[in-house]
Amino acid sequence: MNDFPCTYAANCKVLWPVRLRLTGEQEHGRAIYELDAPLVYHSGGVTIHVPVGFRTDFASVPRGLWNLFPPAGPYAPAAVIHDYLCEHPERCSRFLADAVFREVMREIGVPWYVRLPVYYAVRTYGAIFHWRS
């Protein structure tokens, strides 16, 4: 298997459990968590390995929508993988990172009525953030 070349394919699997710990730190008013165990994602012939110690704030959902879409909702593992991919733009485009985010949400059973608005929010607002940075 290839290790993190970041190509899109079907037939993926997220290896559980996702073990995190609260760091006690905040960034932009959001709690920061750190992986205590690696998070591994397989898709076709691709493996994405998010290492122990990776830090995340989960999904970057505007505070006003947290009742509907909490940052650590059922899509949390997908958000961790997406954060990791976005931190490595030299190896994975933002478009591909977003596609993997959507695929992982589907694979872990996030319902379509949650998955689609979260995905399109990431595509829309992620593009704005990406453009500004």
Element layout with pairings:
Elements: E1 2-3, E2 12-15, E3 20-27, E4 30-35, E5 39-43, E6 46-50, E7 55-56, H1 76-86, H2 94-107, H3 112-132
Parallel strand pairs: 1-6
Antiparallel strand pairs: 2-5, 3-4, 4-7, 5-6
Helix pairs in contact: 1-2, 2-3
Count every beta strand, where a strand is a DSSP E run of 2 or more residues. Answer: 7
Structural class: alpha+beta
Beta fraction: 15-25%
Can you count the helices?
3
Low-pLDDT runs: 1-12
**SSE string:** EEEEEEEHHH
The strand order across the widest sheet is: 1-6-5-2
* Mass-distribution shape: globular
Radius of gyration: 14 Å
Assembly status: single chain
Largest sheet: 4 strands, mixed
Tally of domains: 1
Average predicted confidence as pLDDT: 80
Helix content range: 25-40%
Q: Termini distance? A: 33 Å
Task: Describe it.
The protein is built from 3 helices and 7 strands; from the N terminus they run βββββββααα. Helices cover 35% and strands 24% of the residues. Helix 1 packs antiparallel against helix 2 and helix 2 (94-107) packs antiparallel against helix 3 (112-132). It has 133 residues and is α+β, with helices and mostly antiparallel strands. It has helices at residues 76-86, 94-107, 112-132, and strands spanning 2-3, 12-15, 20-27, 30-35, 39-43, 46-50, 55-56. The protein has one domain (2-132). A hairpin with a 2-residue loop joins strand 3 (20-27) and strand 4 (30-35). It has a 4-stranded mixed β-sheet with strand order 1-6-5-2. The chain has a 3-stranded antiparallel β-sheet with strand order 3-4-7.
